[in-house]
Amino acid sequence: MSSFDRYHQPASAMLDAEGRLRHAEPRLAGLNARAGGEPGQPIAVPAMAELVRISRRLGIDVARRILVADGEDDVELWVQVEPDGDGLRLTVGAWGLAGEGEGAHDDADAAELLALDADWRWEADGGLHLTYVSPAAGSRFGFDATDVLGRPLTWLFQLTDDGEGGFPMLGAMASQQPFEGQYATLRDTGRTVLLSGVPRTDAGGRFAGFNGAAHAVEPDAPETQPEPQGLPQNFGKRLREALRHPLDQIVAHADSISAQADGALLQDYADYAGDIASAGRHLMGLVNDLEDVQAVEDPDFAIAVESLDLADVTRRAAGLLAVRAERAGVTIDRPGAHETLAARGEFRRALQILVNLIGNAVRYSPPGATVWVRLEREGQIACVIVADQGKGIAPEDQARIFEKFERVDPSEQGGSGLGLYIARRLARAMGGDIVVDSALGEGARFVLTLPLEE
Amino acid sequence: MAARSTQIDPDPAALLSHAAARGMRAQVRAAPPVAVLFAPPSDPLDDRTRAALCDRLERLVRTSADRLAELAAARLDAAAEPALAARVRGEAGQVWDRLAAVPTLWDETLLAELLAETRLALLAAALPVRAPFNPDQPSLLARLAHSDDAMIAEAAKLLLLHGSGAEFATLQQLCWPIAAALRQNATDPEEIALLDRALISAVEQLRGQDNEAPAAARLARALRRDVATLPELIEQALADRRLELVVALIADAGGLGPRAVRDLVLERDPAPLCMLLRALDLPRETLARIGFALCEADPARDLDAFADLIDTVAAVPLQAAWRAVAAMALPAGYRTALLALGAEAGA
C-alpha cells in the first residue's frame, strides 16, 4: 500500500556519509532550519539526528514515529533513514499536529476494545491475507478455521457495500483509521457477519494489516443483497470511480516530475518520481482488473461482436509491450505488416487479451529470450499463438492458472491473479477460448481462438 | 569505538569468556521462586508482565482442565457411570479457582517456563511493526501456510492458530494438581475409587498426547533446507513480529534447544546473543536488524552497546564463537551444577 498520507506527500532529504545535509525538499528544509540547521551541517532536529546516527551506526534502514517541537506546535511525524549510495536518505511524512493523527501506540488497545463483545476475532497482514481466526469460529460458523489461514481476506469475507457504495474496510485502509459496520457474507455458508477492525501501521506510516472482530448478524439485518458468488454489486466500478481521480493525479504529477518538465532535478528525485508513477499505474491496473471481473461475471455481460483483423490487433498488442520487453531484454517476434487474419470479436477486448498473454510471456521469459506470436487458421477458427521460452507450467497447474486469484507461485511479485481468468472469460464471451500447452522446462504456448470471419 | 555504558570489554578474548559465562547464567537466572508470582507489586515483575502471566496461566489451566475432564468423563461414560461423568465435566470450571487458592501446588519449573513464554510474547508484541515490502505478497506465515510441502503448511497453520499463545499443550506439571482439583469434592468412597481410576488413566493419556514439538520448532526444522535463506527467514519472521519463530530458526540452525535461545533473546545483556548469531555466520545486517528491533521493543536495552558488539564479534573467528556458545548446548542440569561449582565456562 502507498506510504502517502492522504493529504500530504512525504518529504525527503539526502545526507552525506557523515550525516550532514546535502539538500532537502522545502518542507523538510524549513523544519530543519527552524531548528537551527543548514545544508552542510548535521540535521538539527534532535530526534531525527538520533535516527540518522542509528542508521549510520547499524548500516540498515530504520524508522520511528517521533514528536517534534516546531515553533509553538508539537508535530507528530514518521521518519525513515536508509543508506542510499554513498550517503543516507531521510524521509519524513504524515505531518500533522500532535493528537490529530492516529496514535499507533493505541492500536493494540483499540483492537482489544473492539474485540470485547465480538463473537470471534480475526487478523490480516499487510497484503490482506488472514493470519489469525479464533479457532472456535470455524465450527460455529461453518468454515474450516485452519484452512482459511493464509488466504486472502476476501476469500472468507465477501464484502457488501453499505447501501451507498461505501465499504468501511476499504476506507479504513486508505485513511488508517479503525472501522466498523462492514457487512460481509461468509463463503460457502452465506451467513452474514458484521466486521470491525483496527489497522496496524508501521513506523513509516504504511498499512501493515488489521486486527479485527466479527459479530454474527441476524440474516435479515443488512438491506443490500449480497452476490451469491463473485464480487459484490458494482464493487469494481465503484472502487475504480473512487480511486481513478486520485490515482490519475498521482501518476500525472509523478510523470511530469520524472520527465523533469519544470526544470532539471536531481536524478534521485526523478527516479523516485518514476517509481511513484509505476506504482500508481500498477494500482490502477489492479483496480481495472477488479472492474473487469465484475463486468465479465455480470449475468448480462455481452460483447459487441464485429469484424476485426486479428493480425492488426496482435501487432498493436506487441507494440504496446515493446518498451517493457526491451527493458527485460526480451524480443517479441510478431506477425509481419503484410499479414492479415479476419475474425469476429470486439477489438478492445481482443487487444486486452493479447496484451495479457504477450505481457505474461515477456514477464516469464529470461533475458535474451524471444517471444513468438504467430497467426494460424484452422477450419472455421482463427488462432493467435503466443509462445515463450520461460520455465513452463506443470500439467497440474494448467487448469488452475485460469482461476480467479490463482498464481502458480504465490511469492511472485506483481499482478492480481486475475489476468488469465478475465482473458478466458472474455474470449469465451466472443465465441472463442484460450488454451495452454506447456510442460516444465519447455516454455508455454497460449492460444487464443476466435471465430473466423467469412 | 569505545565501549559504552556496560562493562563489556571490546577485546575479543575477554568478550568470548564473558559471553560464555553470561550465556550459562542467562538460563539459570530465568527461574524465579514461586513467591514472586503472588508477591506484592514492589517485586521485579512489573504489573503488565504479572497480569499477562496470570492470564496465560489461567488460560492454560482452564484449557487443560477441560481436556482432562473430558477424557475422564469419557472413561466414566464407558464404565456406565453417566452421572459421575456429568459431574466431572461440571467440575472443570472450578479448577482454576481451587488451584489459585493454594500457591504451594504450583511447580516452580512450570512457572519459570510460563514466565519466559509470557515475557517473549510481550517482547514480540512490542517489536516495531513493519509493513510488507511487497503488499501483493502474503506475509511469511500466510505464504507458508499454503506451501506445497505438507509439513511446512501444517506447521505454519498451527503457528498462526496458536502463535499468539491462545492454546498450548498441557504442561506435565499441571496434570496431577488438576486431577486432584477435579476430584476434590467427592466424599463417597465408591465414587472416589471410580473417579481416581478414570482420572489417573486420563492423565496418562494426556501425557502421551503432548509429545510433539511445538509448532515453531517443527516449522523451523521443515524449513531447514537452504542455509542461504536463513537470514531472509529470520528477517521476515522478525518483521512480522513472530519472535517465537525467530527463536526456533536460530535454535534449529545452531542445534540448540529453543528454550536456551529464548532465554538469550530475553536476556538484556546482548553479548551472548550476539556471539550466537556470529557463530551461525549470519550477515552483519541481520544482526543489526535483530538488535534494532529488540532495542526498540525494550528501551532498557542499550542499542549502542549492541552496535559496538556487532562490530566486535564480526572479528571473532567462527570456531571461537562456537566454543563460546558451546556451553549453551549442554543439558540444563549439567550446566546449572557446573555453574554452582564455579567450573570453567569452556570458552
List strands and helices in order, with pairings.
The complex is a heterodimer of chains A (454) and B (347).
Chain A: E1 11-15, E2 21-24, H1 26-34, H2 46-58, E3 62-70, E4 73-84, E5 87-93, H3 107-115, E6 120-125, E7 130-133, H4 135-141, H5 145-148, H6 153-156, E8 157-159, H7 168-175, E9 179-186, E10 192-201, E11 207-216, H8 235-258, H9 267-297, E12 306-309, H10 310-320, H11 322-328, E13 331-333, E14 342-345, H12 347-363, E15 370-378, E16 381-388, H13 395-398, H14 419-429, E17 433-438, E18 444-451
Parallel strand pairs in A: 13-15
Antiparallel strand pairs in A: 1-2, 1-5, 3-4, 4-5, 6-7, 6-11, 8-9, 9-10, 10-11, 12-14, 15-16, 16-18, 17-18
Chain B: H1 12-29, H2 47-78, H3 82-91, H4 95-100, H5 108-126, H6 140-144, H7 150-162, H8 175-183, H9 189-209, H10 215-223, H11 230-239, H12 243-254, H13 258-266, H14 271-279, H15 284-297, H16 303-314, H17 318-326, H18 332-340
Any key phrases for this structure?
heterodimer; A: 454 residues; alpha+beta; 5-stranded antiparallel beta sheet; 18 strands; globular; B: 347 residues; mainly alpha; 65% helix; elongated; disordered N terminus; DUF2336 domain-containing protein (chain B); DUF2336 (chain B)
